[in-house]
Amino acid sequence: MAITLNPERLKSIERKWAIALDDIGQEKVINDYGTPVDAVERLISICEAESKPLFITTNLSHMQLQERYGSRITDRINRLCRIIEFSGKSYRQ
User: Fold this and answer.
1) Mind listing the pLDDT tens digit for each residue in 25-36?
2) Of 2, 14, 41, 74, which sits most exposed with the smallest number of CB within 10 A?
3) 40/48 Cα distance (integer angstroms)
């Protein structure tokens, strides 16, 4: 179930001991009093700064992640996560 993020919900997530991000690359930028905030970039940066466990799922390839988030965030993902790739037939209709 997707959670609609707003600035208050994002701050609540930031305080958790670990962060899990499902299907990154599909989220929308949120506005914090008129300032655009990319929640995924912010949460990944917090995990790195505070040494929090980070769990991520995505359907994007490494190149697609790099195009979407840039090398700074993909480098952080590589440092924080053990990448496990699943391949095979999609059962999505």
Assistant:
1) 887 777 777 777
2) 2
3) 12
